[in-house]
Amino acid sequence: MARVFNFGAGPAVLPVEVLERAQAEMLDCDGTGMSVMEMSHRGKKFVSIAEKAEADLRTLMGVPDNYKVLFLQGGASSQFAMIPMNLKALSSSGAADYLNTGHWSEKAVAEGKRFVDLNLVADTKPSKYTTLPSQGDLKFNPDASYVHYTPNETIAGVEFGYIPETGSVPLVADMSSTILSRPVDVSKFGMIYAGAQKNIGPAGLTLVIIRDDLIGHADASVPAMFNYKTHAENGSMYNTPPSYAWYIAGLVFEHLLANGGLSKMAEINERKAKKLYAAIDGSDGFYRNPVDVNARSWMNVPFILKDDALDKPFLAESEKAGLAALAGHRSVGGMRASIYNAMPEAGVDALISFMQDFAQRHG
Ligand code: PMP
């Protein structure tokens, strides 16, 4: 059996140690004689797995006590609607500010418009999402119910290097593709959410970290399952939670804590990203990353080849070399290397060597 280096954007690579642990516990988790997949979510064993996962995440991210951590389903995409449904009434204006900086913020905006009086405080679409606004460009409405943004855009590969300052208006962040990549000050956010399938664990789990005072403002017409209050009051077990994904996420949190936590991750991630961008920039134009240097993502690195006729051979040869899933998103083409926490530095080194060799042979 040979594992490849998987550069997919999500579902994405998981730490080998986590997969091995899951394998070892597959048939009999800790003397229970069953897989975590088969256990009641209300049983003692699963409840202890769930509680440990939450406690470890709180330690990893330094989540303050006045925030709830919710383990939900529906993907980050469901949050695009749940956010306005739950937070619209935080102010009497019924208005919300959104930053449109890529494919995923665009989707959040489209969904938000169905519920709130939505104002775009930034829109980088004219740059084809290759730039980001600076703090000085952002003029927020002090009467807005909340501000929504996407700190890392998975497709264009742009990432904010700062947290927008929104005063007393709660800041809501879609951290799907950057959560756990570095330390963040959770207290600067009203709410953080993420689909799990990049840096957290398997698809099917959606993490929500929300400040207590933002819970309980949904209109009476909001269905129970779409109300944060329901999940907060029931420890994310109002209905059957995504129990196996929750368990794997817990193994990932434990693994990160055992390996130096988020500051160590940041150090490694920065190094991995810098060397990959350096290889692209140093290729004499054979490869090109279209993103503004200040907006480059540590997690998703898109690059184009000097001639798109080379895309097919690049993909075929890289696949043969054990470098999987490098095709760019269908909306932008070219290549994209997603280098999440679980992508070993050796994987980035192997990609760089392959790119240099390929450029030499096709240059
Ligand atoms: N936001 C971002 C930044 C994403 O990268 C993705 C998925 N790639 C989504 C939202 C949508 O997530 P989901 O598929 O979990 O709904």
Tags for this entry?
363 residues, alpha/beta, Aspartate Aminotransferase, domain 2, Aspartate Aminotransferase, domain 1, 2 domains, seven-stranded mixed sheet, three-stranded antiparallel sheet, globular, binds 4'-deoxy-4'-aminopyridoxal-5'-phosphate
What is the mean pLDDT? 97
Major beta-sheet overview: 7 strands, mixed
Overall number of structural domains: 2
Low-confidence stretches: none
What molecules are bound to this protein? 4'-deoxy-4'-aminopyridoxal-5'-phosphate
Keywords: Amino-acid biosynthesis, Aminotransferase, Cytoplasm, Pyridoxal phosphate, Pyridoxine biosynthesis, Serine biosynthesis, Transferase
Family: Belongs to the class-V pyridoxal-phosphate-dependent aminotransferase family. SerC subfamily.
GO cellular component, one term: cytoplasm
Subcellular location: Cytoplasm
Brief digest:
This protein is of the alpha/beta class and 363 residues long.
